[in-house]
Specification:
Largest sheet: none
Order of helices and strands: HHHHH
Number of strands: 0
Strand content: under 5%
Radius of gyration: 11 Å
Oligomer: single chain
């Protein structure tokens, strides 16, 4: 899948994975908390799909981070 903002999706996915691992959660556990499939969570983390703001906000709640933290891209 091609995105106009692929790099941003990639950084978002990397940040999600970083905070998930920092909290000791598997993709499966985070996906359960967010009410999406593990496959979808994996695709979000590797920038293989678009993600809605609703899912982003649910991920923030589950990881106890702000949206700003997820979108703070370090290059």
């Amino acid at each position: 899948m091609q995105f106009r903002h692929y790099d941003r999706y990639r950084y978002l996915g990397l940040n999600i994975a970083y905070y998930r691992k920092e909290r000791g959660l598997s993709q499966m556990k985070l996906a359960e908390k967010v009410n999406i499939s593990r496959t979808h969570m994996g695709r979000i983390e590797v920038a293989d799909c678009a993600v809605s703001l609703d899912v982003i906000f649910d991920i923030c709640d589950a990881l106890e981070v702000t949206p700003k933290q997820l979108f703070d891209f370090r290059e």
